[in-house]
Amino acid sequence: MSSLHESLFRPIRLGAIEAPNRILMAPLTRGRSDPGSVPNAMMTEYYRQRASAGLIISEATGISREGLGWPAAPGIWNDAQTEGWKPVTEAVHKADGRIVLQLWHMGRLVHPDFLDGAPPVSASATTGPDHAHTPTGRKPYEPARAATTADIARIIDDYGQAAQNAKAAGFDGVQLHGANGYLIDQFLRGSTNLRDDDYGGSPQNRTRLLREVLERLISVWGNERVSVRLSPNGDSQGCDDPDPAALFAAASGVCQDLGLGFVELRQPGPEGTFGRTDVPRQDGMIRRIYSGPLVLNSDYTAAGADADVSAGRCDAISFGRPFISNPDLPFRIRTGAEWGPNVNVPQSWYLPGPAGYIDYPALEPVA
After folding, report:
1. Which of 209, 217, 274, 364 is a Cys-bridge partner for 187, taking CB atoms 3.0 to 4.6 Å apart?
2. Beta strand pairing status for 226-230 and 137-140?
3. Which 3 state secondary structure label does DSSP give 133?
4. What pLDDT, in 10s, does the model give residues 27-41?
């Protein structure tokens, strides 16, 4: 069948993962898991419906109770959660899809309500801006405590156990969430990392935790099934840096040294969820340092995605919100069909139940 936007339908090797197209599903927090952060049958159907993506990057998934501060977001730190993910991966694979698990520690953006009143942990004793979503409503963030070296060692172990559980659950790999102002990002950026030890100060020191966590994930999965998401886009939930070019050059060097399967960059456009739009983009610099597959996520249209892949600016595009209301987004892009309704409505993103989640219809394939 002839198609529009041919560059997006060339197969691509993302490390060890053979993707049939370059339209990836970006991680999307949806808040539909069962009590105990356990995935359920509704989530299985949601991911199965979207298996035509070249690769699904799962919603951000907590590596530990300490690291998860979002109501009804899933986890991967215990046996019940691991068992809950197995039907998801089985359904995606049965539909000829591929799926990696995004590993998440929210750091200072975990409200104490999730921790029996204990303070969250971060690079330094800082406080997130705005408000947290808690089971009893929106509340201001509270001060975090600075991670000790023992905390850091324990957190790295938590990432390692989560990676083992992801393998047991049947995923095709893992992605480290290093973006959007969460724990890894809090260590990366100068506004939130005020440390004077081996994890603070220079860009090389501030990328130390990024490197050590990735090394632990690689020890479980191998480098070609490990990826990372970064957000070199100015302020992200209170995380910023006075010299982003130097910082993300160092982070890109880590990715290159370790030979990651791919790197995904969250760089919002005018309607982006996170970050400013008046700062220089860093993807060109990162592409010069990191030689593996580069995936961009930036509020793309089909035409814009085709243009950037065709021009060699990146190797694939991850789409977020368009996949919410278009479970068959690759088919719609290929055929030029209209995309489903704009769902820029947080109520449909996060409320429990199937509405706005698994009730968006796919188009009937045209012979």
Report:
1. 209
2. unpaired
3. strand
4. 999 999 999 999 999
Q: pLDDT of 29-85, one tens digit each? A: 999 999 999 999 999 999 999 999 999 999 999 999 999 999 999 999 999 999 999
For the chain, what is the largest distance between any 2 Cα atoms, rounded to a whole number of angstroms? 64
Residue type (1 letter), 160: G
Angstrom CA distances, 202 to 205, 208, 244, 246, stand at 5, 10, 12, 9
291 in helix, strand or coil? coil
State the average pLDDT over residues 250-270: 90
- pLDDT tens by residue, 346-360: 667 888 889 999 999
For CA atoms 283, 57, 254, 194, give the dihedral sign. Answer: positive
**Residues annotated catalytic, as ranges:** 182
pLDDT in tens, 204-247: 999 999 999 999 999 999 999 999 999 998 899 999 999 999 99
Q: How far is CA 310 from the centre of its chain?
A: 24
Q: CA nearest 170: which of 222, 62, 94?
A: 94
Phi/psi-derived region of residue 27, left when phi > 0, alpha when psi is between -120 and 50, beta in every other case? beta
Q: How many CB atoms lie within 10 A of CB 30?
A: 21
